[in-house]
Amino acid sequence: MSMHWYVARRVAWAVVATYLILTITFGLLAVAPGDGQTAFAFEAATEGGDVDEARETFDEITGRDEPLLTRYTNYMVNMATLNWGWSFTRNQSVMDALAAAYPYSLMYAVPATFISIVFGYAIGLYSATHQYTLTDYLGTFTAFFGISVPNFWFGIMLILVFAVDLGWLPSYYQTGRGVWTLANAKQLVLPVVVLSTGAIAGNMRYSRAEALEYVHADFVKTARAKGADDWRVLVRHIFRPALVPLMTILVADILGLLFAGAYITEVVFQIPGLGLLSYKAIIQQDTALVMATTLVPVFIAIVGNLVQDIAYTVLDPRIDYGDR
């Protein structure tokens, strides 16, 4: 099977997966109690508007006055054409809301991902090559601590210690402080620590377990017998074969950091990123915004898995497209 045909099949399955995810999300929102109409009418009333007119306007904007099948068809067509609708809770288009939110998520998610990968894999490989030593036990303890501690509790504890008691760092995120500034870096320290702690622990456990399969392998012993230094043995003969199964963990780790962890982290530290945007959209029943924030992680997951499968064949030439 050629690579082009393999990629085409994967892309086709990606389209089907995206369609199913969006359909399920739309169905759940359609049957969920509360539709945001009351909140929209209340906001209009507080501003001196007519409540009945506000309800009619809401129905017209969201298409609630149309049959469910028509609403579903129109919405799926709009999603495919990147016309993702209007957010009535933010009074702006959904695309503008996403464009305004994603830089804040990237500001802490990118360094957290880099730190978790580098330190997690490094500690795991070191523990595997120094099994049953004091550093191995220390690394294992750190891994269990990072996995066991809930992110929301850990974030609150860090705020109480370093923001409230010591006053070293801000307790919540404040916009308008620039990107490449010391003030912005200080308020990103705690979110990065909270988000990367659990990821480092997970990467450490998986990399240690995978590396242990090759530490005492015959080809590793042969490389040492031929005079290969420890660094070459670690990188070329242990880490590279162990990296093949770790690619799956890497994609899941990035998704967990960007979205699963973003909900908790951004709510605790009030970071106006994708997680907080999606959380507020769900609470306020902003259907268009919920659908859009659902599509972003779905798209990243699908593209990530496609890149992951192609990377398998680069890391291990024995893997053939036809076998998959």
From TrEMBL:
The chain crosses the membrane at residues 12-32, 105-126, 138-168, 188-206, 242-264, 288-307. Residues 102-308 form the ABC transmembrane type-1 domain. It is found in: Cell membrane. Keywords: Cell membrane, Membrane, Transmembrane, Transmembrane helix, Transport. GO terms for biological process: transmembrane transport. Its main location: membrane. GO terms for cellular component: plasma membrane. It is a multi-pass membrane protein. InterPro entries: MetI-like (IPR000515), MetI-like_sf (IPR035906). Pfam families: BPD_transp_1. Belongs to the binding-protein-dependent transport system permease family. This is ABC transporter permease subunit. It comes from Haloferax marinum.
